[in-house]
Amino acid sequence: MTPFTHEPIVEGTGRAAPTRRGASAQAGGVWRHQALLSRCCCLSVATMSLTSTYQHKLAEKLSILNDRGQGVLIRMYNIRKQHLGPVHREKAEIIRFLTNYYQSFVDVMEFRDHVYELLNTIDACQCRFDITVNFDFTRSYLDLIVTYTSVILLLSRIEDRRLLIGMYNCAHEMLHGHGDPSFARLGQMVLEYDHPLKKLTEEFGPHTKAVSGALLSLHYLFVRRNHGAEQWRSAQLLSVISSPPAMINPANSDTMACEYLSMEVMERWIIIGFLLCHGCLNSNSECQKLWKLCLQGSLYITLIRDDVLQVHKVTEDLFSSMKGYGKRVADIKESKEHAIANSGQFHSQRRQFLRMAVKELQAVLSDEPGLLGPKALFAFMALSFIRDEVTWLVRHTENVTKTKTPEDYADSSIAELLFLLEELRALVRKHTKVIQQYHLQYLARFDALLLSDIIQNLSVCPEEESIIMSSFVSTLSSLNPKQVDSGEKFEFSGLRLDWFRLQAYTSVAKAPLHLHENPDLAKVMNLIVFHSRMLDSVEKMLVETSDLSIFCFHLRTFEKMFAVTLEEPTMLRYAIAFPLICAHFVHCTHEMCPEEYPHLKNHGLHHCNSFLEELAKQTSNCVLEICAEQRNLSEQLLPKHCATTISKAKNKKTMKQRQTPRKGEPERDKPGAESHRKNRSIVTNMDKLHLTLTELALTMNHVHSFSVFEHTIFPAEYLSSHLETRLNRAIVWLAGYNASTQEIVRPSELLAGVKAYIGFIQSLAQFVGADASRIIRNALLQQTQPLDSSGDQTITTLYTNWYLESLLRQASSGTILLSPAMQAFVSLPREGEQSFSAEEYSDISEMRALAELLGPYGMKFLSENLMWHVTSQIVELKKLVVENMDVLVQIRSNFSKPGLMASLLPQLMGAENVLKRMTIIGVILSFRAMAQEGLREVFSSHCPFLMGPIECLKEFVTPDTDIKVTLSVFELASAAGVGCDIDPALVAAIANLKADSTSPEEEYKVACLLLVFLAVSLPLLATDPSSFYSIEKDGYNNNIHCLTKAIIQVSAALFTLYNKNIETHLKEFLVVASVSLLQLGQETDKLKTRNRESIFLLMRLVVEESSFLTLDMLESCFPYVLLRNAYREVSRAFHLNRVPASTH
Fold first, then answer.
1. Are 963 and 1080 contained in the same domain?
2. Are residues 834 and 914 in the same domain?
3. Dihedral angle over CA of 286, 291, 296, 299, nearest 10
4. How many helices (H) and strands (E) would you count in the chain?
5. Residue 802: its pLDDT value, please?
6. Does residue 1082 sit in helix, strand or coil?
């Protein structure tokens, strides 16, 4: 650590031409060695002259030493909290590692030297301290004593202090040949303070008169500030409206700075002051009273951050070892019992009072911010009182572990107090200009005149003091209200420093002008100091009166308070105070310890983040629970629930006596019954959720943004992120997918549930402060992808897998039938095989719902998965064609020769397999066509202005159009759900198949032979009992009507890929198929011709499916009379099968 340096304090009150004396004198400077300050030291009272009084620079030294003392104290704190770590063997490494520690101890030693010197100088000058007169001088003096004591106590608590110093000196001696120059004195100091309090009391014995005098000046103030809640209430403390006529009167006091002086600071002064200068306790009854009163207030006082002094134990241990202090020990025990019995309840009642009083004050000032001018003091008093009560609770909650009354050290309503503190801080910041405007006029038009009169009435006024006070008047008189309007930055630190100097000059025994003899001057100057701070130091005042960075070192207590707040429904609206307080952590940093800045920053950001995450989680949970309730209400309106109502209505008309409900069948309430209440006091679950959400919405929407260290925090973004994630999970949960049983909710029911969720979230947009549209848009868009942002499966993946693995797999196995008449897949009645009704998942309304849920991206993913299954079947088909290549080539050349065909057909292997695989392809493509139709309808409904141009563009495509352009247009149309002659997705899927070493000509030959294979295999279908054509369903029970779509779509894709004429090859297929089916007419085996007429109808279905074929083409190769006869025969057979059933 570098030697201590301090930049010179630039003095002045803004005068244009500063002189040698007064505000122009240089304060302090850079000092490192004791000799630098000894030049200003007074040797004796007798030799002290007026000039030497000015040269002592007491004010400057107190300012510098207090700031440096805080830095040294923080360094001691950090050394105590750190571990020594591994011991290095290398001398240079030891030096490098321990230098920081060693120099910190050297800083303590030098700090001690300078404190000794200054305290001796103050004693020699016989300074008089009075907090109500020379506030800054007295406060700085007491602060220095407490800081010095805290440094020494922390030094003694560092267990490895001797080891650190010794190791460093040994390494220094080995490296440089001699020990460190400071080692001897440093070692001596460490040994002296093994028992720190004993040594400190010896050191402060000579200073008892000055210290006790300063402490006694606190008596009236401390007693007044130590009043209970009832006394506060009777005095109507902090109430602006208690006296309406005086509402606009300025809130003034003879001791302005004392009004918001921290109670914790005063307790620390009194406890440590009388601990060091205990002699006056036996000789002065007033000191004894003040000391006992202070002992009854707290069990612990803070030294620094979370290092505390256990007041009664430490004091009792010290006094017990001294003679003549038996009564004081008894007083300590009595005070401790009083504190344990009463202090918890005492502070609890004060916190309760402050909740009500500050809430009223904040409401009044929010409504009338102009009152912040005259009543600014009230705001800072309220902040200081809240801070005192919170810090008292924190340090006692953390340290009082065993107590019979734990409720005294816990407060479930602490969040409200923290919230009010933040609200008041925000109010002061927001209306800073109001405060500045008021106090600028106060300074220029009242304070300056009053000060001028007082100066003129002074009986004695030396030249130095006269110059300083005259500069005060001139500075204040030059102020102009336009300076506030123009946004000018004010700077009165020079004026306040000059007043500090003046306090020092006029507080020494031999001063010509004694401040205590001129209390009016002290009163008006203390008033001026407060008013000047309202112009240039509002933010510093807020830090001074309301900084709660102590929570950075009591994180466990901080987290417990937050957890308790979340458990208390009425406190939820105040929970935002916890992340806001994380912004205070930046104030506990110090320039002398920069290495702790990243650590403190991480603490602040981590806890702010965790608090907001938890609040967002709670809010999103509440929102989703209400959404679930809304979904339950929406679910009651689904069409499937109206059957019972319709049935009851029908029974009432047809039966005289109403049927009694079956046992075990619950009576369903009609939708809307939940809104009928006989008693409004009955609170439903929805009421509780709405109340909780209201509270959480208030806290999440309280501030738009705030800063923690250099980071800007947006609470609404936390909520948006959580809501988006939870909504994604909720939508997947609504789908109800069960992998083991392959159950899933119908798309239409899921869509109704999703709409219920979205409807409620949209209604929350203006309450929760989150962008509801963005949340919904992002969540729904993620559901159109295979995985969401968390890597979890979406409804796109779930429905794609379910339709492929459940519905289409069973359709391929023949347990589900595609019914063109119903435009849906229909489950065939078979025992023990069906777990769902296929038509409930595949009709027009379900396909529309599926398309609306999955959107174009999700439907594309579904299509890609369907095409993968199609291409896998095409690969197998090509293998079968290759196996039968020679036979198929002969058949293609001789299909019109019955005799030769009779010998060739039996040589074909796997003809049934070809038909089966092609049927599977047809089923998949038929399902895709249904899904595309649903997408088209949804797209037309949502974007009619886009659908029109797409359909128009598709119509311009002709067979002569370039194939790349054609596929591009068809791809656009297919994305909108518009059907195309050539399926671009199928073309792309087949093109992506990894081809073997076969040439394109061979591939093309395989495609041609595949159609021949299919054509000559069609007669085999007639032997299948399931190949009967059902007029009712407009299809076959074995789904062979799907063959037509497979033949047309696959042929179009293959020959488009090979750049061949589609129509020519489909005509060839018609011819070969016609010849094969016509030869079936000459078959004599009835088993082979069982469903011949039904198979004939496939020819017409092929033509109807294709835009490339016409009935005239079919007529040229397959007589239409056969089709007509086939229709008649099928119809007759269908009606004959229905007659017995209807008769029965």
1. yes
2. yes
3. 170
4. 52, 8
5. 94
6. coil
Cα–Cα dist 497/505, whole Å: 12
Helix (H, G, I), strand (E, B) or coil at 12: coil
Q: Given this model, what pLDDT does residue 995 score?
A: 59
Backbone angles phi, psi at 20, to 5 degrees: -65, -30
Evaluate whether residue 643 is within a structural domain.
no
The sign of the torsion formed by the CA atoms of 939, 942, 946, 949 equals: positive
Structure letter (DSSP) for residue 491: -
The predicted pLDDT at position 1140 comes to 52
For the chain, how many structural domains are there in total?
3
Domain that holds residue 360: 50-247+256-429+548-557
Helices (H), 83-228: 91-124, 135-157, 161-176, 183-192, 196-204, 208-216, 219-225
The token pair that represents 1060 in the structure block? 């061949």
Cα distance between residue 82 and residue 565, in whole Å: 33
Residue 301 pairs in a beta bridge with: 309
In this predicted model, what pLDDT tens digit does every residue of 959-999 receive, in sequence order? 888 888 999 999 999 999 998 989 999 999 998 886 566 78
Identify whether residues 920 and 950 lie together within a single domain. Answer: yes
SS3 assignment for 26-52: CECCCCCCHHHHHCCCCCCCCCCCHHH
C-beta atoms surrounding 869 within 10 Å: 18
Q: Is 701 helix (H, G, I), strand (E, B) or coil?
A: coil
Q: How far apart are CA 380 and CA 918, in angstroms?
A: 85
Confidence (pLDDT) at 682? 80
Tell whether the torsion through CA atoms of 926, 927, 933 and 935 is positive or negative.
Answer: negative
- Render 994-1039 in DSSP notation, one character per residue: ---S--HHHHHHHHHHHHHHHHHHGGGGGG-GGGPEETTTTEETT-
Exposure of 492 in the CB half-sphere (CA atoms within 13 A): 29
How far CA 280 is from CA of 124, 217, 311, 328, in Å, comes to: 20, 14, 18, 12
Per DSSP, the residues of 139-154 read HHHHHHHHHHHHHHHH
Pair 331, 292: CB distance under 8 Å:
yes
Same domain assignment for residues 226 and 203: yes
Q: What is the distance between the alpha carbons of residues 586 and 1034, in angstroms, rounded to a whole number?
A: 78
Instruction: Tell whether 1031 is covered by a domain.
Output: yes
> How far apart, in whole angstroms, are the C-alpha atoms of residue 1005 and residue 1007?
5
Regarding whether 489 and 424 lie in a shared domain, the answer is: no
Question: What's at 600, amino acid-wise?
Answer: L
Q: Which residue's entry shows tokens 């005799």?
A: 899
Per-residue exposure over 1089-1119, b if at least 16 CB sit within 10 Å of its own CB, e if not: bbbbbbbbbbbbbbbebbebbeeebbeeebe
Same-domain pairing of 976 and 1026: yes
User: Hey, how many other C-beta atoms are within 10 angstroms of the C-beta on 477?
Assistant: 15
pLDDT score, position 662:
56
Question: Side chain identity at 800, as an amino acid letter?
Answer: T
Q: Looking at the domain assignment, is residue 744 inside a domain?
A: no
Q: What is the DSSP letter of 669?
A: P
Cα-based distances in Å from 1094 to 468, 1016, 1027, 1091, 1097: 118, 16, 7, 5, 5
Which stretches in the chain have pLDDT values below 70?
1-53, 83-91, 653-668, 830-835, 994-997, 1138-1144
Are 228 and 298 in the same domain? yes
Angle at 769 between CA 765 and CA 773, to 5 degrees: 40
Residues 365 and 485 in one domain: no
Which of 505, 537, 569 represents a domain boundary (last residue)? 537
Cα–Cα distance measured from residue 995 to residue 894, given in angstroms and rounded to the nearest whole number: 30
- In 3D space, the residue among 675, 690, 705, 706 whose CA is nearest the CA of residue 764 turns out to be 690
Q: How far is CA 748 from CA 99, 698, 798, in A?
A: 74, 36, 15
Give dist(CA 424, CA 238) in Å, integer: 13
Q: Look at residue 565 and tell me if it is in a domain.
A: no
Secondary structure class of 111 (helix, strand, coil)? helix
What global pTM score does this model have? 0.86
